[in-house]
């Protein structure tokens, strides 16, 4: 059953892909026998055949995921989404501190240990990656704002 | 032979450069750590660390040496969690648990670990030697491949993938097609027509390879870890002071040799990697051993077979990647993508155009194998301690590493959402019994497949018979049919044998 739903959803996406391949993609002029649309057309036919076969003969009937697990997964995804959204505004250190602590606590760590973990990964991660390895990580708008203030003050003084 | 020796000389001069030597050791060490962590296998390790290795700004040969070190280090480390925890890191380590874990339960953990380290070393070294002998010859031959032959080669790669990987042929094929479809997103290189971009500027250049890899392997793995999360610590079996005996090695030596050969050649087949190799080697050994009935209860030969096979396959999988530009496994598909990011086109010309990359990689594998044996025998206790890291620390760490890696490349927060979405998609695919390796293989090979098909038809002016005009293509198509039909035929024959009156399975 789950197999059929998943294949059905994929089939809808594939049909959209197919329609675009057969109608929308077109080169303004071309000399080659195969244009940009031919390859997607071939692929879409193969994909539709595979999907129809799965719809006809599904083999996985259940996902075997309990309600509690769904809840945990959904929470993880929400945390990941929030982490991605806050990555630039808050900067690496703050967002990682929040994300690391929250996910660690959610997965069963005690609050204190989670806080230590979040703090350690965010600060150590930033120092290691930015200072030692020279990678590019966001400082965060807050830090940038403070920087600007500080340099502004200095300029004002001098 | 001369070419091999001069090549190896070039390679060792690259690999013995102090910085590269350090990277080999660092990669092997990090790889063993990752492989030893329960639930994380080579492919996830390479996927999560690839963007960081790319972001460090090394030269292509150094980055590749580092990644390859992580790859076979993880292949090595996988046995630690298999033996002590009975939790395989990935599919290729499943066979190791069958006899490795019973040995540890019988109080012979040290013996099992040291025996498997030696088996891995022999398998790995054997594969590198064959790789350095065969690869240049194969590359010289592959230079003569026309675009039509390449199309046939792709068909062969996907045929062997479909028949040997995963349980369901149709699902494997669909997985590969999904990968190929993902690869069509972006501007068409031949005509400049945008395809499936929907006006989103972030994907005009196509979905970044790193995003697909980290999403499908790193983030999907993270969700799987969260799903299967066990409360509390996993119980690790104690590590004792027993060590491998000469008698064990004498007993296992032919097992190791046979399994290394099997592993290497299965690894060479495009698309099939270590998981198939270790399963086939274990099955073969069980069938021909006179004490086959004790397999699964802690037979040292049952441990040596899959371990030497999967390390040999890891080396074998490098052969098609370096010579044809067609990866032999999911992990080599990622390495191939890494080469492409450095603007190096893997393929027959690699040995002549970038000898320092091809031979440097091969030489680093010799060094890496020795280094792994040396760090694995005395330091196994340290790696074993990694097993007890609680999962609530490990899971957030994977996410943080993945985010660092993806963000440092282009600094675009949109990509962070994209890997999360791809992770959800990959998790669903895994839950539906799709394996993810075909998807990444399809994604990596997508443009190569399409361009060769279009080039072949341009040469013939639209005549499709050019695809079967050459003896090389015809042989490859015949092999494709064979590789699909042979397992079906063997399974049917096995069923008929089992139904027959002679029952040979009394011992079980």
From TrEMBL, chain A:
Q: Name one Pfam family in it.
A: TctB
Q: Which InterPro entries match?
A: DUF1468
Keyword annotations from UniProtKB, A to Z: Membrane, Transmembrane, Transmembrane helix
Membrane spanning segments where? 5-27, 39-57, 69-84, 90-108, 115-135
Query: Domain DUF1468, which positions?
Result: 7-138
**Could you name the domain of life of the organism this protein comes from?**
Bacteria
Name used for this protein in its record: Membrane protein
UniProtKB/TrEMBL annotation, chain B:
Every copy of the DUF112 domain together lies at 21-441
Keyword terms? Membrane, Transmembrane, Transmembrane helix
Keyword Repeat recorded: no
Q: Give the InterPro entries listed for this entry.
A: DUF112_TM
Record keywords: Cell membrane included?
A: no
Q: Which Pfam families match?
A: TctA
**Membrane spanning segments where?**
21-40, 52-74, 112-135, 147-166, 173-191, 203-226, 261-282, 324-345, 357-384, 396-429, 436-454, 474-491
Mind telling me which PANTHER family this protein's record contains? Answer: TRICARBOXYLIC TRANSPORT PROTEIN
Write the protein's name.
Tripartite tricarboxylate transporter TctA
What is the scientific name of the source organism? Roseibium aquae
Q: Recite the lineage of the species.
A: Bacteria, Pseudomonadati, Pseudomonadota, Alphaproteobacteria, Hyphomicrobiales
């Amino acid at each position: 059953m789950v197999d059929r739903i998943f294949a059905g959803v994929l089939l809808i996406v594939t049909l959209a892909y197919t329609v675009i391949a057969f109608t929308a993609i077109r080169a303004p002029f071309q000399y080659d026998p195969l244009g940009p649309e031919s390859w997607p057309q071939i692929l879409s036919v193969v994909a539709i055949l595979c999907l129809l076969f799965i719809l006809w003969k599904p083999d996985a009937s259940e996902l075997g995921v309990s309600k509690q697990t769904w809840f945990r997964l959904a929470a993880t995804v929400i945390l990941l989404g929030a982490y991605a959204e806050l990555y630039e505004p808050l900067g690496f250190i703050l967002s990682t501190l929040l994300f690391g602590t929250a996910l660690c606590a959610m997965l069963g760590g005690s609050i204190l240990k989670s806080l230590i973990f979040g703090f350690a990964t965010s600060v150590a991660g930033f120092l290691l990656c930015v200072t030692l390895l020279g990678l590019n990580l966001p400082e965060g708008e807050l830090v940038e704002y403070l920087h600007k203030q500080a340099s502004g003050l200095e300029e004002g003084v001098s | 032979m001369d070419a091999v020796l001069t090549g190896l000389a070039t390679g060792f001069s690259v690999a013995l450069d102090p910085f590269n030597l350090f990277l080999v050791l660092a990669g092997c060490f990090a790889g063993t750590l990752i492989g030893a962590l329960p639930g994380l296998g080579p492919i996830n390790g390479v996927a999560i660390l690839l963007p960081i290795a790319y972001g460090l700004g090394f030269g292509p040969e150094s980055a590749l040496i580092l990644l390859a070190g992580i790859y076979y280090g993880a292949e090595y480390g996988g046995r630690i969690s298999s033996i002590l925890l009975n939790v395989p890191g990935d599919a290729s380590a499943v066979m190791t648990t069958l006899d490795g874990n019973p040995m540890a339960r019988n109080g012979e953990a040290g013996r099992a670990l040291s025996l498997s380290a030696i088996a891995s070393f022999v398998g790995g070294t054997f594969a590198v030697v064959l790789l350095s002998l065969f690869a240049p010859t194969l590359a010289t031959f592959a230079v003569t491949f026309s675009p039509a032959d390449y199309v046939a080669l792709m068909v062969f790669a996907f045929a062997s993938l479909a028949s040997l990987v995963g349980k369901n042929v149709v699902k494997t094929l669909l997985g590969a097609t999904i990968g190929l479809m993902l690869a069509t997103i972006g501007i068409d290189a031949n005509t400049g027509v945008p395809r499936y971009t929907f006006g989103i500027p972030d994907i005009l250049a196509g979905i970044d390879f790193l995003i697909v890899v980290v999403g499908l392997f790193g983030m999907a793995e993270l969700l799987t870890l969260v799903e299967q999360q066990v409360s509390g610590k996993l119980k690790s079996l104690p590590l004792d002071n027993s060590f491998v005996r000469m008698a064990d090695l004498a007993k296992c030596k032919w097992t190791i040799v046979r399994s290394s050969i099997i592993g290497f050649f299965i690894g060479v087949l495009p698309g099939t990697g270590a998981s198939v190799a270790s399963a086939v080697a274990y099955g073969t050994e069980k069938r021909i051993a006179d004490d086959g009935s004790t397999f699964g209860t802690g037979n040292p030969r049952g441990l040596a077979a899959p371990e030497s096979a999967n390390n040999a396959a890891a080396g074998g999988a490098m052969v098609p990647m370096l010579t044809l530009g067609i990866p032999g496994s999911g992990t080599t598909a990622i390495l191939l993508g890494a080469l492409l990011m450095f603007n190096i086109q893997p393929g027959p010309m690699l040995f002549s155009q970038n000898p320092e990359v091809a031979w440097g990689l091969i030489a680093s594998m010799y060094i890496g194998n020795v280094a792994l044996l040396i760090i694995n025998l005395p330091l196994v206790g340290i790696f074993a301690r990694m097993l007890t890291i609680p999962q609530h620390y490990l899971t957030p760490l994977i996410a943080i590493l993945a985010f660092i890696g993806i963000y440092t490349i282009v600094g675009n927060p949109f990509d962070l959402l994209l890997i999360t979405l791809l992770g959800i998609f990959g998790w669903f695919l895994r839950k539906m019994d799709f394996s993810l390796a075909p998807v990444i293989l399809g994604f990596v090979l997508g443009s190569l497949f399409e361009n060769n098909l279009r080039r072949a038809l341009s040469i013939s002016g639209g005549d499709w018979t050019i695809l079967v005009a050459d003896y090389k293509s015809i042989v490859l198509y015949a092999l494709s049919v064979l590789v699909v039909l042979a397992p079906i035929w063997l399974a049917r024959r096995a069923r008929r044998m089992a139904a027959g009156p002679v029952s040979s399975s009394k011992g079980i």
